[in-house]
Amino acid sequence: MKIIKIGGDKSIRLDFVAEDIAWLWKKEKGDLIVLHGASKYRNEIAEKLGVEIKKIVSPSSIESYYSTPEFMEVFLMAYAGLVNKKLVAELIKQGVKAVGLTGVDGRLFLAKRKEFLYVKEDRKIKMLKGDLSGKVYEINKELINLLLEKGYLPVLTVPAISKQGEILNVDNDAVLFELVKAFGPDEVVSLISAPGFLQDVEDERSVIARIEKEKLGKLLSSAKSTMKKKIIYAQKYFEFGLQKMYIGDGRVRNPIKRLLEKGEGTVIF
Questions:
Q1: What string of pLDDT tens digits covers the 269 residues of the chain?
Q2: Domains with residue ranges and CATH for the chain
Q3: Do residues 4 and 32 lie in contact, with contact meaning Cβ atoms separated by under 8 Å?
Q4: Structural contact between residues 134 and 111, judged by C-beta atoms closer than 8 angstroms
Q5: 10: which DSSP letter?
Q6: Helix axis angle, 172-183 relative to 141-149, nearest 10°?
């Protein structure tokens, strides 16, 4: 099995990605799961609607957003409404039997709400309450397997849901971790708005082509917030039997073929 993770930047070409997913879906005989984001779409919609997006920073310098009820409404518009259905439509054009679901549907991603957050503000650590975010801890594997067995491609996205029925903002990398644990894929393909894992985030020519999984820890010291989080999760994926993780450019035609057949981008092994 392979899992395709698509980043949330608007520069990623969903039509190009869908072409290659269709190719891989046939090649893998349907043994494929897709997980996508929509962060930049969310931010753009929020700006248009005048909804405040408050960025917060954890004590370990990981950035996220304060998830107010208004924020979560915009979240649903972008992830569940706009991007999920656009991607499903592009896949259907390519002849793929795609079904789009959020973590809310069928309790697909079950999460526990965080009672409070610790955030860093002006060099001080503060406690923040009222946040509608959570930690995903369970995947409805039965529902995903039902789709796979019937020949459908699951196209999944956040948010998640709690046992109490609360819609919660959860991290897509954390969801991917739970999918890796549940399904044990041999490979993960991550499509981002860069040509691969960059040594210097300001220089797209600084792609690191190959990274041994044992050396991921050495990259943490120089990694910035978002990439630091991704490295931490990548280490976890390999603990559960992942063989390879590919990171490549979702802005170009044939993004997956470039990674798997031509070796363009980054491979972690």
A1: 999 999 999 999 999 999 999 999 999 999 999 999 999 999 999 999 999 999 998 887 788 899 999 999 999 999 999 999 999 999 999 999 999 999 999 999 999 999 888 898 888 898 888 899 999 999 999 999 999 999 999 999 999 999 999 999 999 999 999 999 999 999 999 999 999 999 888 899 999 999 999 999 888 876 765 778 888 999 999 999 999 999 999 999 999 999 999 999 999 99
A2: 2-268 (3.40.1160.10)
A3: yes
A4: yes
A5: T
A6: 70
